[in-house]
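Example record used in the benchmark description.
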Amino acid sequence: MTVSETHRAIEAVWRIEAARLIAGLARIVGDVGLAEELAQDALVIALEKWPEAGVPPNPGAWLMSTAKHRAIDRLRRDQRLERKQDEIGRELGHRQHVEIDVETGPDFGDDLLRLVFTACHPVLSTEARTALALRVLCGLTTAEIARAFLVPEATIAQRIVRAKKTLARKKIPFEAPSGAELAARLPSVLEVVYLVFNEGYAATAGDDWMRTGLCEDALRLGRIVAGLVPNEPEVHGLVALLEIQASRTAARTGPSGEPVLLLEQDRARWDQLLITRGLAALARAEGLLNAQEGGGTPGPYTLQAAIAACHARARTPEETDWTRIAALYEVLGELSRSPVVELNRAVAVSMAFGPEHGLHLVDQLVAEPALKNYHLLPSVRGDLLAKLGRHDEAREEFERAASLTANARERAVLLERARASG
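Model output (structure tokens):
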């Protein structure tokens, strides 16, 4: 294996194992920031040793073992070993037994859940909780997180640094909450799961349209949270949304990895098992809402799941109930007041009532500051202009959208649409 091949292998291993490493180390050292630092140290050592020694048979276990050794050394340097030795001893055993298989340790889901709830602690702002969890949970770059939040990259970087310092200064324990505290912290956890899934479902940067590993991580975490709080409707609403969205994975890319948009997808490739699970989760969310006194109000994830269900139930694009989808987006918009939701509503309105109606709504969003660098705004506007026969304007919009996206696959599609509008 060449050096470049080894580096690519290390990068792939890191994407898979980062969350596992940080979660496991945070349980040991009780500090999320320190856990990420130790995991990064292990990665640096791998970059130094693996090109010569080769990638080990179980790279995840190698990284965890190396990081645990670094944890011991760090604790000694900080003169904290005496206070921690009993805790470390129970976790690691004798130093010579550190080389363990990660899979034989405590359940990854438990550690992952603790990690997310710790990153989402109330001592942090909602924005900081989500940014930190995205960073330590799946190793997203500050640029990717910034695009998810539609804010400058420098803002995200500051949030992450301050969040780590706050957790360390406040000595926040590495644990999952219960009772009223759990209910108070649950919304930010659900936001983390949602944004992680979205980053996997439509990658903001790189050469791949999707990062399916992130989708799988988010879906698994969502199911774990649903198991922890089974009577919370919005948790099941989120799981329903992710299940249904994930059902389209195989149909979302073409033979060369190019993106395939929803209305052009081969619906025979949609995963019917995931759709069935998603519809069942949606029914459970709606059932829990109906059981509440006076009938509960659906939250944003349950509403989005209901929208996704409209697509899942349609055997062909023509059978899609766009009128209902537009109505659901209107309710969602009243609940969230998000310009992105308004953009999606404009698409639904255009499908239900004609492109001119959709364009009217999109034009009202052009001056929205949060959408200034959001590539989907000119992309949607270009599509509507093309449908109205305004091809020169459509071409300009597609070219602008292509210049704003950092995803190579998406850029290629947008540039092709620009050429086709010429």
